[in-house]
Amino acid sequence: MTFLDFVFYMFILVVCIQVIFNLLFFGKFAFLKPSTKTPNNFGISVIICAKNEAKNLQKFLPSVVSQDYPNFEIVLINDASKDKTFKVMESFASKHNNIKLVNVKNVEAFWGNKKYALTLGIKVAKHEHLLFTDADCKPLSKDWISQMAAYFDDSKTIVLGYGPYKKIKKSLLNKLIRFETLQTAMQYLSFAKVGLPYMGVGRNLAYKKSEFFNANGFISHIDVRSGDDDLFINQVATSNNTTICFSKDSFTQSIPKTTFTDWIKQKRRHISTAKHYKFKHKVLLTLLYSSQLLFWLLAFVLLIFQFNWKIVLALLLFRLCLQFLVVGFSTKKLGEKDILYLLPFLELFLISVQLTIFINNLISKPSHWK
After folding, report:
1. Which one of 65, 69, 111, 147 has the minimum C-beta count within 10 Å?
2. Where in the numbering of this chain does the Glycosyltransferase 2-like domain appear (predicted)?
């Protein structure tokens, strides 16, 4: 067997792996019909942890305060901010009696650790059902709380939501950021749908307080500076206790980074937590990324040498058509249809960026909570 024969058979295997992921995993979400849930009226504690976020709180907190839900409180956690974050919180609390404040001072054992601040906020929350978002997030409707709360029931104690980034016209970086966010959401929503939940995002995430205390909070990964959302969900989520919510009224929208350097720093923090996932999740995610990388690399080598080029081209086009179909239905659900036409380019760019981040994280540790 020649080297190119080996590459060709490897390419066929990689295409098969990609087809399996697109049909058996991502297709479960892409072709899923939305369901209507009966609204719940139990109490909800909305938890927002902020560090040096005075301006964002002034801008986005009104959209949380004005939610159309009969019984909710807002727990605002000031994590040792150096700006006017706590004064802004006090100003809102003086006007709204459903706002509760937690002012966290730096403690040597948990210096700069967001998980410590969140734990204090969760402890003072009066309701069993907790809904998390960030200070720079804006609910896209007044029904955000009611939509997320509707997916709780006797067995479902964790609700995974979606938090897109705001669109910026004529910005390639913005499209890349939103594509990466879309791809991540497709992964964690699809995996949850097939019974393998592995993460959630703190921009839009809900779970019962009992789940938190039954797991002893963040104690199993308290030494990991990031991961208050994905590592906790990776620890406690199961096929039985986890569900997903993707109605457009349940979305929260965040402000994206505007420079490539800032975005890379953010992604380095996010990716650094993946090594702490459960083994089965690490295997699946590694297989997914490796198959994406090898698909393009092997196709390029085979086409350059024109080795069985007709078969290679046919398989390449087949996989792209399948991907356009699956991603297309997903973008329609998640409101990101404008990035679909750039799919191959954005995928190649993102694969390159992720590879660079993996290498950089091996060389040096990423920075964490501000």
Report:
1. 111
2. 45-179
In a domain, 65, yes or no: yes
Residue with tokens 């939305």: 34
Question: 107: which 2 tokens?
Answer: 């403690």
Count CB neighbours of 10 within 10 A. 15
Range of the structural domain that residue 64 is part of: 44-171+195-256
Using DSSP bridges, classify how beta strands 205-208 and 158-160 pair: parallel, antiparallel or unpaired: antiparallel
CATH code of 73's domain? 3.90.550.10
Distance (Å, whole) CA 71 – CA 101: 18
**Structural domains counted in the chain:** 1
121: in domain: yes
Tell me which residue of 319, 307, 315 sits closest to 344, measured CA to CA. Answer: 319
Q: Minimal CA–CA distance to 120: which of 93, 100, 102, 99?
A: 102
- Spatial CA neighbour of 193 closest among 234, 245, 153: 245
Residue 94 lies in a domain: yes
Cβ contacts of residue 341 below 8 Å, gap of 6+? Answer: none
Q: Answer whether residue 151 is part of any domain.
A: yes
